[in-house]
Design brief:
Layout (H helix, E strand, L loop, with lengths): L2 E6 L2 E9 L7 E7 L8 E4 L10 H4 L8 E4 L20 H13 L5 E6 L1 H12 L4 E7 L6 H7 L4 H8 L2 H7 L4 E2 L2 H8 L10 H11 E3 L5 E3 L3 H9 L5 H7 L4 E6 L15 E6 L6 H4 L1 H12 L1
Parallel strand pairs: 4-5, 4-6, 6-7, 7-11, 11-12
Antiparallel strand pairs: 1-2, 2-3, 3-5, 8-10, 9-10
Keywords: Hydrolase
GO molecular function: hydrolase activity
InterPro entries: AB_hydrolase_1 (IPR000073), AB_hydrolase_fold (IPR029058), Carboxylesterase_BioH (IPR050228)
Length: about 300
């Protein structure tokens, strides 16, 4: 597991690349937090369009007490797994990536921490590999209402239905993908749209790894608008089935406003749902202390 020293903010961290046996040779990129000699405590998966580095300020204070890997998912950041948005139906590919990683990691069962899409992928993977998972902390995971989730798994009907009723996918496909520089992208995002509640440090970390350099000197989104849109549309996975099969404790921290998690009272007994006051879907950046406390308690 090669590591490259990296400085983020004031603290030295490490980049790692993780082999999951991809036939094409693709690898998962990750940021490591905590002492290398300590067994791994947790894996962290980001939201659609984000990167592992986006969560640096959330995870960095935990580095003295835990070993954590935050991973770039397929189609994001520096991960090199193939990401083809055509004919995509579900997030089962993201869950399979996580399962493959869990199967290759040594050590005891892990805590899975996931935000939004990353939370759903973590849930799906935990249902498949309960022996590799200790517990879960899910940050406003995407769990559709039961009827919408059922419709999303119906062949032929679902793709047309979701394309007609997915403003998020429409916004993603229209996103500006190229900027003259990261500084220009940061200036364009600060205080606007989805980023209006973000602290500057988290936004700067998102821009740092969320863009890659082009030969002409400009920068472009590492997660292409087509892949981001495909993630919004690909809702054919079975989150409710995974919840029924889940054999590990899970805490869901749900946004108070605009939550993507339809799970409230109708839940298995080992799943706890807490609505975090004053938060939106971006609660890891709006309520970092509450999220860190949840991770600490899960790692134990």
């Amino acid at each position: 597991m090669p590591a490259e020293a990296l400085t983020l903010g004031a603290a030295p961290l490490a980049r790692e690349t993780l082999d999951i046996g991809d036939p094409a040779g693709g690898r998962i990129a990750a940021l490591a937090f905590g002492p290398r000699e300590r067994p791994l405590d947790a894996l962290v998966l980001h939201a659609n369009g984000f990167t592992a580095r986006t969560y640096r300020t959330l995870l960095e204070p935990l580095a003295g007490e835990a070993r954590i890997l935050a991973c770039d998912q397929r189609g994001h950041g520096s991960t090199t797994l193939r990401a083809d948005p055509r004919h995509r139906r579900s997030w089962n590919d993201l869950a399979a990536d996580l399962v493959a990683l869990l199967d290759r990691l040594d050590g005891p069962p892990l805590t899975l921490v996931g935000h939004s899409m990353g939370g759903t992928a973590s849930l799906l993977a935990a249902a498949r590999r309960p022996e590799r998972v200790r517990n879960l902390v899910l940050l406003d995971p995407v769990i559709l209402r039961r009827r919408d989730a059922l419709a999303a798994r119906m062949p032929f009907v679902a793709p047309r239905l979701f394309r007609r009723h997915s403003p998020l996918a429409e916004q993603a496909i229209r996103r500006r993908a190229v900027f003259p520089s990261r500084a220009a992208a940061l200036a364009a995002y600060r205080g606007r749209g989805a980023f209006r509640t973000w602290p500057d440090a988290a936004l700067a970390d998102y821009v740092a790894d969320g863009f890659r350099e082009r030969p002409d000197g400009a920068v472009e989104l590492a997660c292409s608008p087509a892949w981001e849109a495909a993630n919004f549309l690909a809702q054919g996975h079975d989150s409710w089935g995974a919840l029924r099969r889940l054999a590990r404790p899970a805490l869901i921290l749900r946004a108070a406003s605009g939550s993507t998690c339809a799970l409230t009272h109708d839940r298995p007994p080992h799943v706890t749902v807490e609505t975090v006051p004053g938060t939106t879907h971006f609660l890891p950046f709006e309520a970092p202390e509450r999220v860190r406390a949840a991770i600490r308690a899960a790692i134990g």
